[in-house]
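Progress note, sequence design subtask.
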């Protein structure tokens, strides 16, 4: 996915991320650009119906993702346990595999457990 796709979202996310603590406090925040890439990768993994928006696959997928997230927000609270063993120290994506390049920023062997404050993994 291109950098142009995520510029506005990344700028907004960077501002808001400094105001609130992370969900998993033992890990650093994931960079805004990488959050956009992770979401776009998930959306592009689905084949969805064309509904009201039909201009392009990007906007069709984002629209469907928005509807799906809106439905999820109606569900009861749920604590999602961490499903990873470390974090890419370059981009901040939480990952399960310990070897090789990060699948998002492609930095080789960037994955290591993060230590923030007194907690560590």
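Output:
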């Amino acid at each position: 996915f291109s950098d142009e796709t995520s510029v506005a979202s990344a700028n907004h996310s960077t501002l808001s991320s400094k105001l609130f603590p992370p969900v998993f406090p033992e890990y650093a925040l994931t960079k805004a650009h990488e959050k956009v890439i992770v979401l776009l990768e998930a959306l592009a993994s689905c084949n969805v119906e064309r509904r009201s928006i039909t201009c392009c696959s990007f906007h069709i997928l984002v629209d469907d993702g928005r509807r799906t997230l809106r439905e999820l927000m109606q569900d009861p609270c749920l604590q999602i346990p961490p499903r990873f063993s470390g974090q890419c120290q370059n981009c901040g994506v939480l990952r399960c595999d310990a070897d090789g390049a990060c699948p998002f920023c492609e930095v080789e062997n960037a994955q290591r457990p993060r230590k923030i404050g007194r907690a560590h993994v």
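Helices lie at 3-17, 32-44, 57-73. Work on this subtask will continue into the next period as scheduled.
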